[in-house]
Adenylate kinase isoenzyme 6 (Bison bison bison), 172 residues
Amino acid sequence: MLLPNILLTGTPGVGKTTLGKELASRSGLKYVNVGDLAREGQLYDGYDEEYDCPILDEDRVVDELENQMSEGGVIVDYHGCDFFPERWFHIVFVLKTDNSILYKRLENRGYNEKKLKDNIQCEIFQVLHEEALASYKEEIVHQLPSNKPEDLEDNINQILKWIEHWVKDHSS
Ligand code: DAT
């Protein structure tokens, strides 16, 4: 059976991991967290002193994922999306969270002032939405609200329905 690949993107803290894991367990699709994948495989290329974090080796991440992406049925979670091959994804969801809610979530994560400010600005200026629109066809890019538990439930149900339709359309 053919299964679609789904990209979940958005500013850190908007709820990609929460949605991705729950969606995977309810759809049977595989969940891949690119941050975890990079950490496990040390897929890094240098260190960013300003942001105090390793720099992702995007080419190695793409190589690492290529086989499973061509098989299909993968949910990818990352706060960036312009380096994945466009052909990988059948649909792209950009999660959105209100600033005050996102601020609290990131504060709880122990982010320092600079990291907090940069991430809130990233959300205000819709950086990931712009990046998604610049990297994928407009008609496959969708924004999803991600403020409260009911949003999570709505998003899961909406995506499960979309998967069901996609599978029906691609069987025969
Ligand atoms: P991300 O993977 O985008 O960095 P996350 O899934 O780790 O984000 O979520 C960050 C925090 O927000 C975490 O404590 C769970 C919470 N959260 C996620 N989605 C939510 C929602 N729809 N309603 C309330 N809290 C949510």
In short: The beta strands are 6-9, 30-33, 44-48, 53-56, 74-77, 91-96, 141-145. The mean pLDDT is 97. The pocket of 2'-deoxyadenosine-5'-diphosphate is lined by residues 10, 12-18, 105, 146, 148-149, 151-152 (CB under 6 Å).
